[in-house]
Design brief:
This protein has 712 residues and is α/β, with parallel strands linked by helices. Helix content is 26%, strand content 15%. Bound molecules: CIS-heme D hydroxychlorin gamma-spirolactone 17R, 18S. CIS-heme D hydroxychlorin gamma-spirolactone 17R, 18S binds next to strand 2, strand 3, strand 4 and helix 9. Its EC number is 1.11.1.6.
Length: 712
C-alpha cells in the first residue's frame, strides 16, 4: 500500500475551501432558513409609529446573529494577518525524514500563514515593539503540519510553567488596562529583571527585529529543537528557519511610533497590497541538522529554547521555498478561525523534551476549546486537512461531518474493522522511541542556567547602528518605567552582558549602574531548590561573533513594492518625472504622486495626473523614499507648505533615499537635506539608477548619528 492516497498540488486546499465559499452575486437575499426577504429596511411594528413586534423573526434573527458575531480574541497573538500560499521542496530529504512533504519534490504543498504581534489586542497597531508570530500550516498529503514559530530565534522562558507569568507581566496592567501593545511598563520589567532567562529574547525584542519594515522582510524560526526521523527510524535533531527573499529590514523607533498613528494597519496593508499586485513574498526554508550523538557537544543545551545554535557552528541548509500568492477571502473565516498547534505533526517529524515545547503541546488545543467553542475546530474549512480524516471521534458542538453507520469504536467487526490502522510502512504515525531513564522531578536542568553568554554574543554581533538602536530601545523602555529599584536591577543585568551597553542606558535614564544587587540575581527558582545552581554565572565567550544575527548587509535587495513618494503640484516637469517613473516602475517599485490637494494636477506637458494622496492625508513615514521633480510652478507651491518640509526632514532623519531634481534644489536648501550634500542616498540631479541603488540599500544608516539635531 502507498503511504498516502493523495498527492498535494498548489490548489489542493483552494479546491477544498471552494466547497465552503460563497459568492452572493446574482442571488436574492434570504433569512438563515432560506426564506426570500422582501423588506430589509424596517422592522415589523404595530402601526408605522408603533412598538416593534416580538414575532418579527427576520429582525430577531438578524440582531441575534449580530449580537454573537465576536469570539474571544487569542490570549496572545491576537493581532494577526494571514495569507495562502504553497511550499516547494528543492531536494529529497529521505536520508533525514520520512515526511512526504520533505521527500517528494513533485508536490506543491498548500499552506496558510498567519503573522502576528504577541501582546496587543486584536485592534492594536501593527508597529508595536514586539516579537512577531510566524505560524505556517502545511496541508500535506499525510495530514496537517504546523510550524508555529516567531521572528526571533529564541524565546523568553525555558519552561512552560512560566508562560502565564510572562504574559501577565507584559499585557496591560490589570488595574487600569494600560498600556496597550507595549512592553515599556513596570510589571514587564519587574518580571524580566527577576527571571534572567528572559534576557536573551528580551534583547531581540529591544533590537530592530521587533519593529520590522514589513512582514515580508523578517526571518522566521521554529525555535525549539525538533526531531526528523527517517524510514529506518534514525533520528536527527533539527531547528527550522525561514529566510525572506527580500532581506531583513526594519524601521526606526521614531517611525514606528508615527506609523502607528498614520496607518495602524501598516503591516497588514503592506502584505495584502503586495499579494494583490502580484508581488508574491517568499521565504526559503532552512534546517540546522544535529546528529543525536552530538546532543551534548554544545556549550548550551539544545532543549533550552532561550538558546540559538549559531549558524557559524551549524550551518543552515536551504531545502525549499514558500510563496504567498493569495489573500484570504474572508478575514474571520480564515485568519481569525485558523487554529495552529505545534503538536500538529506528521510521520517523520517528532518532538524533543524541550520543556517549553512540551507545555505548548497541551496549550494550543486547550485554548481553541474556549476560543473556537469546542473540539470540532478541525472541521472549520481553514483547518481541515486535505488528507482524508476517518476516526471514531464523534459529536460535540458544531459537528459538521455526518458520520454514517452504527459503529464508532475500534476494534469492530460490524464495519469490517474500519477505519483501520496503518502500519508504519504504510504511513502510520509512530512516536520516536526515546530511552527514558530518570526520576520524576519538578526541577530545571543545571544545563539551562547560563543566561548571559548568548545575549552577550548577540550584542557583540550587531553593527554599530544596530547597537545604537538597541541602546535607544532599552533607554526608552526603562525610561517609561516608574520604579527605580526595577530599573537598577535591569542596569545591573545589562552590565553582566556588556558594560558599555549598561553605561549608555544608565546615562539615558539618569541612574547609576549598580555594582551589586541584593539577593540572588535570578529569582525564578523553586523554594527548596539550590538557588546557587540556578544562578546565571558570568557570560562565556564560545564564539566571538555570529554575523548572521545582524541585519547589516552590503547586499542590495530588490526594490519591488518599495513605496516612493513623489512630491508635486501643477506644472511639475514631465520629462524628469517620466524618466524616473519609468526606471522605478521597471523595478516594480510603487510610485505615488503626493500633492498639496487631492484630485487631478497638470504637468509641464499639459497632461492630467491623478493625485494618489493629498499631503494632509499622508505622512513621510509611510514611504521608503522621496523624489521631487523640477518645475517652477510646482516647486513654488510646495515651498509654501510646511508639511512638505516635515515630509522631507523626516525622510532625512529616517535615513531614507531622497532625490531632488532641478528647481527642487530650492526645497533641498530650505530643508534638513542641505546638511547632507555628500550623503550617498541624498541625490541632486542624479541618474535614476543611483536613486534605485540607494533605495535597494534600504537605509543609509551612516547618516543617522548626524541627524540628531533634526527636529521632526
Ligand atoms: Fe504560543 N500560544 N505559547 N508560542 N504562539 C498561542 O494559541 C503558548 C510560544 C506562537 O497565529 C496560543 O491558538 C504557551 C513559543 C504563535 O494563531 C496559546 C507557550 C512560540 C502563536 C499559546 C507558548 C510561540 C501562538 C494563543 C509556552 C514560538 C499564534 C492562541 C509554553 C516558537 C498562532 C492560540 C496564530 C499562540 C500558548 C510559547 C508562537 C495560548 C503555553 C515558544 C506564532 O495556546
Amino acid at each position: 500500500m502507498e503511504k498516502s492516497t493523495v498527492k498535494t498540488d498548489q490548489l489542493s486546499k483552494q479546491r477544498d475551501l471552494a466547497n465552503f465559499s460563497q459568492d452572493d452575486a446574482g442571488h436574492p437575499m434570504t433569512t438563515d432558513q432560506g426564506v426570500k426577504i422582501n423588506n430589509d429596511a424596517n422592522s415589523l411594528k404595530g402601526g408605522s409609529r408603533g412598538a416593534t413586534l416580538l414575532e418579527d423573526f427576520i429582525l430577531r434573527e438578524k440582531i441575534t446573529h449580530f449580537d454573537h458575531e465576536r469570539i474571544p480574541e487569542r490570549i496572545v497573538h491576537a493581532r494577526g494577518s494571514g495569507a495562502h500560499g504553497y511550499f516547494e521542496l528543492y531536494e529529497d530529504l529521505s536520508t533525514l525524514t520520512r515526511a512526504s512533504f520533505l521527500t517528494d519534490t513533485s508536490q506543491k504543498v498548500p499552506i496558510f500563514v498567519r503573522f502576528s504581534t504577541v501582546a496587543g489586542s486584536k485592534g492594536s497597531a501593527d508597529l508595536a515593539r514586539d516579537i512577531r508570530g510566524f505560524a505556517v500550516k502545511f496541508y500535506t498529503n499525510e495530514g496537517v503540519f504546523d510550524l508555529v514559530g516567531n521572528n526571533t530565534p529564541v524565546f523568553f522562558i525555558q519552561d512552560a510553567m512560566k508562560f502565564p507569568d510572562l504574559i501577565h507581566s507584559v499585557k496591560p496592567e490589570p488595574d487600569n488596562e494600560i498600556p496597550q501593545a507595549a512592553s515599556a511598563h513596570d510589571t514587564f520589567y519587574d518580571f524580566v529583571s527577576l527571571a534572567t532567562e528572559t534576557l536573551h529574547n528580551h534583547m531581540w525584542a529591544m533590537s530592530d527585529r521587533a519593529i520590522p519594515r514589513s512582514l515580508r522582510m523578517m526571518e522566521g524560526f521554529g525555535i525549539h529543537t525538533f526531531r526528523l526521523i527517517n524510514d529506518a527510524g534514525k533520528a536527527h535533531f533539527v531547528r527550522f528557519h525561514w529566510k525572506p527573499e527580500l532581506g531583513v529590514h526594519s524601521v526606526t523607533w521614531d517611525e514606528a511610533l508615527k506609523v502607528n498613528g498614520a496607518d495602524p494597519d501598516f503591516h497588514r496593508r503592506d502584505l495584502w497590497d503586495a499579494i494583490e499586485s502580484g508581488n508574491f513574498p517568499s521565504w526559503e526554508l532552512g534546517i540546522q541538522i544535529i546528529p543525536e550523538e552530538d546532543e551534548h557537544k554544545f556549550d548550551f543545551d539544545l532543549l533550552d529554547a532561550t538558546k540559538l545554535i549559531p549558524e557559524e557552528m551549524v550551518p543552515v541548509k536551504i531545502v525549499g521555498k514558500m510563496t504567498l500568492d493569495r489573500n484570504p477571502d474572508n478575514f474571520f473565516a480564515e485568519t481569525e478561525q485558523v487554529a495552529f498547534h505545534p503538536g500538529h505533526i506528521v510521520p517523520g517529524i517528532d518532538f524533543t523534551n524541550d520543556p517549553l515545547l512540551q507545555g505548548r503541546l497541551f496549550s494550543y488545543t486547550d485554548t481553541q476549546l474556549s476560543r473556537l467553542g469546542g473540539p470540532n475546530f478541525h472541521e472549520l474549512p481553514i483547518n481541515r486537512s486535505v488528507a482524508p480524516v476517518h476516526n471514531n471521534q464523534r459529536d460535540a458542538q458544531m459537528r459538521t461531518t455526518i458520520n454514517k453507520g452504527k459503529v464508532a469504536y475500534h476494534p469492530n467487526s460490524m464495519a469490517g474493522g474500519c477505519p483501520f490502522l496503518s502500519k508504519i510502512a504504510d504511513g502510520g504515525f509512530s512516536s520516536y522511541e526515546e530511552r527514558i531513564d530518570g526520576n520524576k522531578v519538578r526541577a530545571r536542568s543545571a544545563s539551562f542556567s547560563d543566561h548571559f553568554s548568548q545575549p552577550a554574543l548577540l550584542y557583540r554581533s550587531l553593527s554599530n547602528w544596530e547597537k545604537e538602536h538597541l541602546i535607544g530601545a532599552y533607554t526608552f523602555e526603562l525610561g517609561k518605567c516608574t520604579i527605580d529599584p526595577i530599573k537598577s536591577r535591569m542596569l545591573y543585568l545589562l552590565d553582566q552582558i556588556d558594560h558599555n551597553l549598561a553605561q549608555r542606558v544608565a546615562e539615558g535614564i539618569g541612574l547609576p549602574v549598580p555594582s551589586e544587587i541584593e539577593g540572588p540575581i535570578n529569582r525564578n527558582v523553586g523554594a527548596d531548590e539550590d538557588v546557587e545552581a540556578q544562578q546565571p554565572g558570568k557570560a562565556k565567550i564560545y564564539l566571538e561573533k555570529s554575523p548572521t544575527l545582524s541585519q547589516e548587509t552590503s547586499t542590495a535587495y530588490p526594490i519591488a513594492t518599495r513605496q516612493i513618494a513623489v512630491l508635486v503640484d501643477n506644472g511639475f516637469d514631465m520629462d524628469g518625472f517620466g524618466k524616473m517613473q519609468a526606471a522605478l516602475l521597471a523595478e516594480k517599485a510603487i510610485v505615488k504622486l503626493i500633492a498639496p490637494k487631492g484630485g487631478v494636477i497638470t504637468c509641464s506637458k499639459g497632461m492630467e495626473h491623478k493625485v494618489d494622496a493629498a499631503l494632509p492625508t499622508t505622512e513621510s513615514v509611510l514611504f521608503d523614499a522621496v523624489y521631487i521633480p523640477c518645475g517652477k510652478e510646482s516647486i513654488d507651491s510646495l515651498a509654501k507648505q510646511g508639511k512638505v518640509f516635515k515630509f522631507i526632514n523626516e525622510a532625512v532623519k529616517h535615513c531614507k533615499a531622497l532625490a531632488f531634481e532641478g528647481r527642487a534644489k530650492e526645497l533641498f536648501e530650505k530643508s534638513a537635506a542641505k546638511d547632507f550634500r555628500d550623503d550617498k542616498a541624498i541625490l541632486l540631479d542624479d541618474e535614476p539608477q543611483k536613486f534605485i541603488a540607494a533605495i535597494a540599500q534600504h537605509r543609509n544608516w551612516d547618516r543617522e548619528p548626524k541627524t540628531m539635531h533634526i527636529a521632526v
